Amino acid sequence: MAKAKASAKTKAKTAAKPKATATAKGKPNGKGSNVEDVHDVEAGSRVTYRTSGHPPRKDSPTYARSRKTLKSISGAIESWYFAGDDYQDHHGGGLWVHDDKGWFFVRNLVGIEWSGQFCADPKKVDVLRRNAARLYAGFPTSFVEFKKLGVDLKALLDKAITDADGVAEWTDSICNASVPLPQPLHTGSVPKGGGVHNYPTPVTDIDRFRFDDFQLWVTDKQGQPAAVVPVGARGSGDSRIRVLHATPGTKLHKAHMAADKKGQSLELPGDDPMAKQAFKKQGGATGKTK
After folding, report:
1. CB–CB of 209/62 below 8 Å?
2. Where are the domains of the chain?
3. Which residues of 37-71 are buried (b: 16+ CB within 10 A; e: fewer)?
C-alpha cells in the first residue's frame, strides 16, 4: 500500500458515496464510508438482519493523534496485505513496529472496539499493554520513530492500566486503533465485501488467503449468502464442503446450528449446488461426493 490514507468517520451522519480514485499502481486516494451508523445488512431479498455500527462519539485527542500517525505510517509502506483503495482505521489491536528495514505490522492478542471498552476489565487490558511492551523492547528504534510522529510510545507502554480512563486511552491509542482496512473488508457486506463488522472474523480472514479459484461465498437454496470451505485438501479429489456461515433465518442456518449443538460441522456432498458453486472456477467439483 503506497501512500495509503486511513480514514474514520466519528460523527453519526449519512455520508455521501465517496469518490475514490486510484492510480495505475493502485495507490489509494479518498475517504472511507460512514461506519458509525446502525446499518441494515442486506442478505438477499428475504432476510435483513440488523448490525450495530459504531455509536456516535467525539474524537478523543488520543484517537485524533493515532489516526494522524497511522496515515503517516501507512503512507511510508510500499505494499499492504489488505489491498484496496479506501482505508478506514479499525480498532483491531495492531502494533506497528520499526526496524532497520522500516515499518512492519503485527497484531496483539485481541483488539478492542470503541464500544467494547465499557465492559473491559482493566486488568485484562493491561495484559495487552504488557504484551506490547515486551514486543517493542526488542525494537528500540520504534520509540524513536513514533516520537518523530508525535507519539510518546514509552509513556503509553509504561503506564499500567488500572481504571476506565486507562482503558479508554489504550482503546484509542496507536497500539489498538491502528489497522487500516479497505471499506469492503471493514464494514462491507456480501457480495460487494465481507466486512469484519458483519461476518465472523475467522470467515472474513479466509478471503485474504484462499486460492483465487475457490469461491468462499456462495448462495444457498433460498438465494441467501453462505460461506463454505473444502473438506479435503487441494488435489485430494474430495469435493465435499463444510459450511462456516449461513444467513440467519434460513433452512441452512437451522441445519448449521443443529449440527453445531451436537458438536459437529455441517458438511454437504460434492454434488450439492453450493459445492458446485464453490469449485466452479476450478472447472467444477470432481471426484469423491461423499
Report:
1. no
2. 6-184, 210-282
3. bebebebeeebeeeeebbeeeeebebbebbbebbb
Within its chain, how far is the Cα of 169 from the centroid?
22
Q: Which residue has the cell 479506501?
A: 86
- Looking up cell 445488512 gives 41
pLDDT in tens, 247-283: 999 999 999 999 999 999 999 999 999 999 999 998 7
Peptide linkage before 248 cis (omega within 30 of 0) = no
What is the SS3 assignment for 144-199?
HHHHHCCCCHHHHHHCCCCCHHHHHHHHCCCCCEEEEEEHHHHCCCCCCCCCCCCC
- Residue for grid cell 433460498: 222
Residue with cell 526496524: 99
